[in-house]
């Protein structure tokens, strides 16, 4: 009976020790579970916060995407309008370029025509100038010959004038002599 009692006591002590051990393990597990619960609660709050932020970010992204799409559409429309305006301006400038090109061609043809006409006029003018120069040289030569002849005639006329003057003086002297002689004769009684 003692042996059985001791054996039962030993079993009770073992059972108590095991119960104490299990209790400690349970307390440790409770504490760990509390930590896990708190950690889970924090994770859930963090997840909830992350979800809220993700939802806000998603909404912000959708708003940004919508605004970007609208801006892109507006810029695309503006680009199309600018392209249309530039295309029209390009057509106008192309037509103006063609007109200027045509005008340039006409002016080149007109320039060539005027150049040819100028060359003909210049040749005609040069021929006329040469002819006039020749006529002038001929006229100058003729005038020089005429001047020489007139000078010779002037000399001859001067000489003749001097001779006539001398003869006139001589005739006047003779007339004076005749007059004096006549007067002298008239005074003589025998002449009367």
TrEMBL record:
InterPro entries, sorted: GOLIM4
Cellular component terms per the entry's GO annotation: Golgi membrane
Keyword Coiled coil set for record: yes
Keyword annotations: Coiled coil
Coiled-coil spans in chain: 5-60, 90-188
Name of the protein described by the UniProt record: GOLI4 protein
Gene expressing this chain: Golim4_1
């Amino acid at each position: 009976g003692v042996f059985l009692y001791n054996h039962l006591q030993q079993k009770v002590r073992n059972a108590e020790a095991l119960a104490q051990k299990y209790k400690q393990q349970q307390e440790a597990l409770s504490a760990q579970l509390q930590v896990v619960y708190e950690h889970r609660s924090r994770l859930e709050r963090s997840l909830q916060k992350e979800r809220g932020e993700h939802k806000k970010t998603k909404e912000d992204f959708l708003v940004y995407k919508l605004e970007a799409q609208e801006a892109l559409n507006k810029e695309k429309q503006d680009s199309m309008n600018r392209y249309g305006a530039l295309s029209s301006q390009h057509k106008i400038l192309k037509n103006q370029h063609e007109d200027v090109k045509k005008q340039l061609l006409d002016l080149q043809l007109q320039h060539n025509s005027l150049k040819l006409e100028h060359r003909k006029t210049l040749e005609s003018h040069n021929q006329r100038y040469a002819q006039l120069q020749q006529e002038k040289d001929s006229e100058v030569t003729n005038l020089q010959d005429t001047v020489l002849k007139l000078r010779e005639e002037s000399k001859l006329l001067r000489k003749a004038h001097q001779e006539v003057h001398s003869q006139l003086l001589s005739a006047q002297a003779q007339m004076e002599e005749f007059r004096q002689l006549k007067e002298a004769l008239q005074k003589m009684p025998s002449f009367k």
